[in-house]
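Long-time lurker. I teach an intro course on protein structure, and each term I like to show students one example going from raw sequence to a predicted 3D structure in token notation. This year I'd like something fresh instead of my usual example. Would anyone be willing to generate the tokens for the chain below so I can use it in lecture? Attribution to the forum is fine with me.
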Amino acid sequence: MKYFVIIALVIGSLSHAVAQQPTTKDLYQTAKNFMQQGDYDNATLVFNNVLKQEPDNAAILKDFAYLNCLKRDYPKAISIGKYLTEKPDADVQAYQVLGIAYKGSKDYASCSKLYQIALAKYPNSGILYNEYGELLALDNNLPIAIQAWETGIAKDPNYANNYYNAVMYFGRFDKNLLWQLLYGEIFINLESNTQRTAEIKSLLLDGYKKLYTDYDVEALSTDLKLTFFERSIYENLAKTKAITSTGVTPENITAIRTRFVLDWFYNKMDERQPYPLFNHHQFLIREGLFDAYNQWLFGAAASPSAYQIWLNTHDKEAAAFKQYQQNKVFKLSK
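-- Reply from a regular --
Happy to contribute to a lecture. Here you go:
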């Protein structure tokens, strides 16, 4: 009788072990966890086991291809990426991961052809325009790269990376300060809490300083090489120059921008030259949040200690703006 009990217990344990075998979903999550932790060997091992169960799962294959990019096994990543993009239902992410593999292997010609095919299929994809711009930059074709990023901004205005790359391009190569400021602020609103956000906030503050020290805004307001929109902005900014007599500080920038918005809408420029960022400013002024917003943009970049003092002495305004940010997602329409 004792032996039968032991055998039954063993069989029960084996049955329990079989019942507890991880599902494909569990294995897939484990593989992604290993990949996120940088343990690429274990990630590969588990991905191989997952793909034995679901060899044609596109989501799993895309992640496995990206893992091989991280491992710098670009031939493997390209092989998987080609298989995915040859499918009739290939999505943007499939083209993106194959593009990453091509760029990693420095096969820029194949990558360029890939993006042209992908953009013909997905002409409104901000992701693909951004990736294509980055490829062109790698291939030292910066004048076309900025065109790709700006097209991506126009086609998909809520995708942040095109703004970031455009800001960096204008700052380093074109020296177009106006668009550096406009794109930079939109980027910060779209991606509001990353290391890149802090980087662009500093560039934004430096940009406003340069605007009133290195640029003649009055002359720019009549420069016929600029668009009517650009000239109109400089014309409004020229009226605010006296505010900077005591320096370009977060408080003075707030005053400059408040006057700018009031003049812009008073003169009905929003009807002639609509721009969503200025509508955003008008809304914040109306809601009593514009001071806190500008402190958030420029305060820490100018002086972390002074910004902390502002937060401590304007706790209600700071709390109201924080609540606004938590409850409302910044969105742009095409």
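Some talking points for your students: The radius of gyration is 27 Å. The chain is about 75% helix and 0% strand.
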